[in-house]
Amino acid sequence: MKDPIEFWYEFGSTYSYLSVMRVEAVAEAAGAEVIWRPFLLGPIFADQGWNDSPFNLYPAKGRYMWQDLERLCEDYKLEFKRPSVFPRNGLRAARVGCVASNEGWCEEFTRAVFTANFAQDRDIADVQVLAQILSNLNRDPAPIIESSNSSANKERLRRQTEEAKRRGIFGAPSFTVGDELFWGNDRLGTAIAWSLGLR
Amino acid sequence: MKDPIEFWYEFGSTYSYLSVMRVEAVAEAAGAEVIWRPFLLGPIFADQGWNDSPFNLYPAKGRYMWQDLERLCEDYKLEFKRPSVFPRNGLRAARVGCVASNEGWCEEFTRAVFTANFAQDRDIADVQVLAQILSNLNRDPAPIIESSNSSANKERLRRQTEEAKRRGIFGAPSFTVGDELFWGNDRLGTAIAWSLGLR
């Protein structure tokens, strides 16, 4: 019996980049099913008393993260260019991600946004950048962006973030398989094993 | 050319338990050299504004840690009994660890203390418990404990903790290979590869 992996990520999150770019190939090779769940870390960090990324609030942790991330990108043969602004606000991208999720093209959109943020140093908080990404995916930006700003869609993202909190998620990326929570890109393999019933 | 791995751990730290119990076998199999470096997380956490373990300060992170730790202990076939007090104060154990390090029996002492804390729920902050551990290792506790409280030895531990800070260490376990820092039990394999020049 197989349970799907729910993949929780935040568009501004560095370690989410690693999983976003890897998860499809890894899951496909293993025969696991993945459900993509964009959410916002901001409200979850705010609950912990943080008004910024912990990588900025705790400089030693931040310096390490960039070093670790560069090493991992090399290992995974992933392009990487350190963003000139960190973290970039992922709210608009996450709203478009909810529309995309509803319409079945969340994965390709997500990968394009993460590539823009972490390989091209483009400002994914800027609606023009998102519009260009949508155009490159052969999608008409205007109606998508309009629908991403509808109150129903905003509510969808709020609910997804609430659901993340309810599941005990405190960082990104995270994976859930049923009630089991796995935090961090390092746990993708374990989440897959769990989803295949190998544990 | 091989560089040794310096293995930085704190006696109260849960994830340090995993590495303490694994590092010798893993390094031996790979032909890597390990230098054991006990230090104190307390002063480093205090610099970050924390007066307790982040696993207590941030409850969602803490709940996850215990779940993750239990899964990992199962994977590694390591005995585990959740300590009734967390974190236990590792100051006395770290001072004895410095004596042990100086005299060449740091590894066996360290494993015995971590086993007491994380498999037997014994209070490693208690000097009687440490004395019993030393007796079990066929060492006369009294002179060792006295020498652990000498000002030269206290200073040795302070310097080791300062050195950890200087290397950018912000949590435990950590591994360093030259100037390269690796944080967390998850990075033991990477640190070994680095130390063997495989990167």
Write a compact overview of the structure shown:
Chain A has ten helices and four strands; from the N terminus they run βαβααααααααββα. Chain A is an alpha+beta fold and 199 residues long. In chain A, helix 1 (14-30) crosses helix 6, helix 5 crosses helix 8 and helix 5 crosses helix 9.
Structure description:
By secondary structure, chain A is α+β, with helices and mostly antiparallel strands. The first copy, chain A, is 57% helix and 9% strand. Chain A has helices spanning 14-30, 42-47, 54-57, 59-76, 91-103, 106-118, 127-136, 141-148, 151-166, 188-195, and strands spanning 5-9, 34-38, 174-177, 180-183. In chain A, strands 2-1-3-4 form a 4-stranded mixed β-sheet, sandwiched between helices. In chain A, α1 (14-30) packs parallel to α4 (59-76), α5 (91-103) packs antiparallel against α6 (106-118) and α5 crosses α9. Chain A is globular, with a radius of gyration of 16 Å. The mean pLDDT of chain A is 97. Chains A and B meet through α4 and β4 of A and α4 and β4 of B.
What's the helix and strand layout?
The structure is a homodimer of 199-residue chains.
Chain A lengths: L4 E5 L4 H17 L3 E5 L3 H6 L6 H4 L1 H18 L14 H13 L2 H13 L8 H10 L4 H8 L2 H16 L7 E4 L2 E4 L4 H8 L4
Parallel strand pairs in A: 1-2
Antiparallel strand pairs in A: 1-3, 3-4
Helix pairs in contact in A: 1-4, 1-6, 5-6, 5-8, 5-9
